[in-house]
Specification:
globular; 4-stranded mixed beta sheet; about 600 residues; 25 helices; mainly alpha
Length: about 600
Amino acid sequence: MRRMNLSADDAPAAPGAPPRSEVRPGDQWDLTQLYPTPEDWEREFEILKNTFPEIGRFAGRLGEGPETVHEAFVLEAKVDRLVEKLAQYAALKTSEDSSNADSLAREARLESVLVQVGEAFSFVAPTLQALDDNEFGRLLASPLLADWKHSLEKLRRLRAHTLTPGEERLMALGSSAMRGHGETFSQLTNVDMKFGEVRDEDGTVREVTQSSLSSFLQRRDPRVRREAFTSFYAEIDAHAYTLAASLASSVKADVFYARARNYPSALESALFGDDVPVAVYENLVASVRARLPDLHAYYGLRKRVLGLEEIHHYDTYVPMVAEVRTRTTWDEAVDKVLASLAPLGDEYCGVLAGGLRDGRWCDRYENKGKRSGAFSYGTYEGPPYILMNYKEDVFSDVYTLAHEAGHSMHTWYARRNQNFQNYHYPIFLAEVASTFNEILLTEHLLKETSDPALRAYILNRQIDDLRGTLFRQTMFAEFEREIHAAEERGDGLTLDRFREIYRGLLDAYFGPGFAIDPALELEGLRIPHFYSAFYVYKYATGISAAASLAAGVLATGETGRYLGFLASGGSKFPIDTLLGAGVDMRATGPVDAALDLFSRRVAELTALL
């Protein structure tokens, strides 16, 4: 199950990355825990190819009763587990170096077979959906299918959006071609595009990359920040028409699937699977919009503290407190994260410590061709691996480690407590576990120091986390809503239209006192998440739910409900899972509380400075 944290501001730094061959093995993840050798992957790949066609013997037979359906589901689970493990290894190998021909070929071959798998299984859902209520009720009531009850309930909800077997076959056959835009974007931005070089404060010429940009934007010298921003966006501008065409095609695919499956809109299509009411999305946008003056006031504070005549986007990431030590080694980062998570108990911290140290869950540092940003990718059989591009001079990377550790431990607890078909937790819940860890890290760091400068630095860090996760991701969510609505109205999604929509959002979210560079209008073209439609709002709802859960754990010391939340996996719909943990995301309370936390921290920082 892939858990990614790849927003535009998360990509850590790189002053000229080494080739993969020069990275110390101890700093790499250990994929031999999945397959000892690539040849072992090939053998299991052959098993998959020989296994999935067996589903054909159930065609026309799923109405025979629970015994036949159970047999088909057991085969489906076997195939799904094979696919999940094979895909994890293939994706992680490609993430190590996106220019490696063997890795790219492996992933392409698997993708080709997955189209065949989808085609072979495409009759299952529509056949079950065609059963009348009495027949389907027999399946739900059967003890033999008890482990699949939630899966059956989710399937039945999709009845109105499931096509005929022939139509489902066509949808499966076309899925790879219709969803290829994200891979095109990834290859273009991670491999082909070159973002230039910048001379840093000490006169050293350093390469600007997707990963190194965040490091440059945190430099004290405004010239370095400005030149890195300018160099980066010059390359984006040089490929702007291609990037716009790629994103437009992805949006068209989203709208096509929504219409083909009889959803009122692409937004409702995206929310339906998690049973999330559209009101949750709309309430988030409305609540954040109402508090934009608080965000504008923070930018005014930042402008004054940094002594800027004008504040630009490239001035929003440099820490306002310059004199604190911000170099943190990997081992120090692990120690800080584990200490902050101590309230969660010995089991949680012990398992995580083993994974981050001797267990080699994490691929730590950048190398040439490595995917930018960070993510956690765990499966039912393999370790919950973490990709990082860790840099000692980027303090936010400590937070990124805590964030991805939250994903990985969520997978660990879900896998340990649920069967295969119920352990897959949705992204809506994943972002709760990750941001929960970040909040605990901030509380720990604030408690362990009385130094006003360091406290100001940590407060600034949490403010920027809330700004980036709550305000910024909501702005992205508005952009997604607007561009999909434009396509649904029949507007042309041209480069100029993308720029126009994005500029309106920049003006609203950054406010009248902010200097917006025209190049920033292109930012919407470089966000990987937009190729997974309506994903980013979950960051904002996630941090809101996490703030409520963390406040409860820190106030009472009681961890049962939170660990129970992790252990529940995907056994219930996400809104119901959070209700069980004491958080109601249908109401505006959690989002408003997180916005209150932002305003309170800004007030504390203002007083310290």
